[in-house]
Every structure is written in C-alpha cells, then in structure tokens.
Write a structure and sequence with these properties.
There is one protein chain. 24% of the residues lie in helices and 34% in strands. It has eight helices and 20 strands. The structure holds adenosine-5'-triphosphate and magnesium ion (MG).
C-alpha cells in the first residue's frame, strides 16, 4: 500500500507543454479518478506515474520515495492500458498468470489467485483460447484480469472499460469497485466518462489542458463547480448557461429579471441544471413565460427544449408529464439551484 505524491510535475513534448505544474497528494487506499476531455493529458500523466514516460520537471513520490528515475518494474504498480497489449502466442490463462510465474509464485498460489479473478470477469470459459480468438471486449477483460491478479502498491487504470458495451461496462465498474474494497490498493483511474468517475471515485481530479481544473468528491464538484468548465463537464444533461451584463444589481435580458449576486458587476453567467428548472402550467410568483420547442423522451424523464424570450434552455421533467411543441407554459428558477460565474474569468462567484 502506498501514497502517491505529484509535486510540480511537468511534461513537454519538444516545446509543447502537455502537463503543467501538476500538484496532487493521493492518500493510501484512496481511489482517485483523473477525468477530463480527450487530449487534456490524462494518459500522459498516468504513464509518467507508471514510468513509461520521462518526467520533464517536478517530483514523483510513491510511498514517500522519489521514483522519477526508477524503472516501471521498481515502482510497485500494475497498469491496465487504454490499448491493452496481450501476448498473441499465449493463451488467456498464460497472459493472466505470466507475471506471477515470472516472479516465481507457486502453481497452487497462482491457481488460487486466478480462480476468483477470472470468475468475476466472466473469463472462465475462455482460459485456453488465444487473444485473437476473443472479441475486443473479452480481450480488454483479460487485460484487466492480468492487472487484478497482482497485488500492487498502486493500481493504474487507463480507460479500461472503453471498448465494452454499456451492460458489461456497468458490471465491470461494480467489479472494479469491489476489487478496490477488498485489496484496498491505492488506485488511479483515467476516464473521460463522468458516470464512471462519479460512481468509482473517492475523489475526482478534473483536468483541462494539462492542469487541474478542480478536485473534490463527486458531490462537491457536482454541487459546487468551481468554474464554467467544471459546471459544463459534470452532469447529464448539461447545465444551462445564460449570460448577462449586470445592470443596477439585476440580471436582465428583456424577459428574465433576476437579482445579481451582491457587489458583482460586469459579465455574469448564470448556470442551472435542467432538472432544477421548475416547469409550471399556470402563471405564478417569479415565473416567466416560455414556449416548448422540442420534447425528447429519455425513459424516466423527458428533456424539454424551451425558449424563454431570447434564451433557449433545457428542462428535465418526469416522463409521465405530457407536453406538446408550441405549448405555452411558465418556468421558475429556484434560487438555491443557481450557480453564478464570472463570464470573463470562468470562475465561480
Ligand atoms: N508522443 C507524443 N508526442 C507529442 N505529443 C504527444 C505525445 N503523446 C501525447 N501527446 C499530446 O499530449 C496531449 C495529451 O495527450 P494524452 O494522450 O495524455 O491525452 P488524454 O487526456 O489521455 O486523451 P484521451 O482521452 O483522448 O485518451 C495531447 O495534446 C497529445 O496530442
Ligand atoms: Mg488517454
């Protein structure tokens, strides 16, 4: 078991800086998820921690020891890659147990570790096949099994579920969470899927352009996004944003007229999640007229595109409630559900 400490970590490819002054302390046993859009540097950072990429600057400590210059084999890590590389000439069984055999573990010990891992991943029936005789999703599960069978200090996962169908992804998410509960190995999990991040993470590190945009528990980031980027990235359906210029302490656009946060001037972006928009059939105190543009059925909920004066926004309502295009109704923004941001800096107000 181990802590992981990133102190001022940097990575440059030539003059292109892809990881910038990255500072993060990961506690022993903690499950941290690096979340962010494609190209933000998640895999690069994970590969730096694994020892597969040189570190341009800063210090990396695992278990309190500086490991910047240590080989991957000396870092006590097991990694599942985005592009799993299985040995084509070995059977599934050999692929999974290879590292343990090389480390000189006894046959009995290996068999004892193998059984629960292949069972939890549904691989028992494929043990004697070669990787080329498996589907992409099955191959990915072999790659996960290969890491799970070890007992490393730190588990590193790079989008291990990206090639799987939704049902299998949900199943394996639960397996990974269960594995973490049993082994308690410190884990870093990279994904651009916010659902995976929200369900697995003790703490999410939201990344953008090689930097930490925000870190916190899933609840903290969801309920108090620190920036416009964090607000727009976390939460499905996406948060609505409405921009205003503050006039006499009010946010006005001809239709909307809301109080501005105290002492704030300039450009303000108001954020509200679709589920928080109140949709009313009749006029009410503080309610504003709106028109239904489009209505999407999403199973449990209905996602409704509304126009409200010059603004367009989405509301999520229970699916049982029927609306029709062109329908006139009223909406209201509960004040406790509003998020205010400085439009120019993107920071939460
Ligand atoms: N070997 C390389 N040489 C030059 N640039 C690279 C190299 N590897 C990655 N990059 C760049 O570094 C940035 C970060 O890439 P990285 O693979 O870490 O992104 P990511 O967050 O894992 O994205 P994805 O979600 O698509 O996997 C990208 O802009 C990428 O183009
Ligand atoms: Mg990646």
């Amino acid at each position: 078991m181990a802590t992981v400490e990133c102190s001022g970590l940097r990575k440059c490819y030539g003059s292109h800086e892809v990881i910038r002054d990255f500072n993060l302390s990961i506690a022993d046993h903690e499950f941290v998820v690096f979340l962010g859009p494609s190209g933000c540097g998640k895999s690069t950072l994970l590969r730096m921690i694994a020892g597969l990429e040189d570190i341009t600057g800063g210090d990396l400590l695992i278990g309190g020891t500086r490991v910047n210059d240590n080989d991957p084999g000396e870092r006590g890590i097991a990694m599942v890659f985005q592009n799993y590389a299985l040995y084509p000439h070995m059977s599934v069984r050999q692929n999974i147990t290879f590292a343990l055999e090389r480390a000189g573990d006894s046959k009995e010990r290996i068999a004892k570790r193998l059984a629960p891992v292949v069972e939890s991943l549904g691989l028992d029936v494929y043990l004697d096949r070669k990787p080329t005789e498996l589907s992409g999703g099955q191959q990915q599960r072999v790659a996960i099994a290969r890491a799970m069978i070890k007992t490393p200090e730190v588990f590193l996962f790079d989008e291990p579920l990206s090639n799987l169908d939704a049902k299998l992804r949900g199943h394996l998410r639960v397996e990974i969470a269960r594995l973490h509960k049993t082994l308690k190995s410190t884990s870093i999990y990279v994904t651009h899927d916010q659902l995976e991040a929200m369900t697995l993470a003790d703490r999410i590190v939201l990344m953008y352009q090689g930097r930490i945009e925000q870190m916190g528990t899933p609840e903290e980031i969801y309920s108090r996004p620190a920036t416009l980027f964090a607000a727009g990235f976390i939460g499905t359906p996406n948060m609505n944003f409405i921009t205003f210029t503050v006039q006499e302490g009010r946010l006005r656009d001809g239709t909307l007229d809301l109080p501005a946060p105290e002492g704030v001037t300039g450009h303000v972006t108001l954020g509200i999640r679709p589920g928080a928009v109140e949709v009313l059939d009749a006029p009410a105190h503080d309610a504003i007229p709106a028109v239904v543009e489009r209505d999407e059925f999403h199973g449990e909920t209905r996602l409704v595109a509304l126009t409200c004066g010059v603004q367009g926004l989405m509301a999520a309502i229970p699916a049982a409630r029927k609306l029709h295009e062109g329908q006139n109704l009223f909406i209201r923004f509960p004040s406790q559900s509003l998020h205010y941001f400085n439009t120019d800096t993107g920071r939460r107000l």
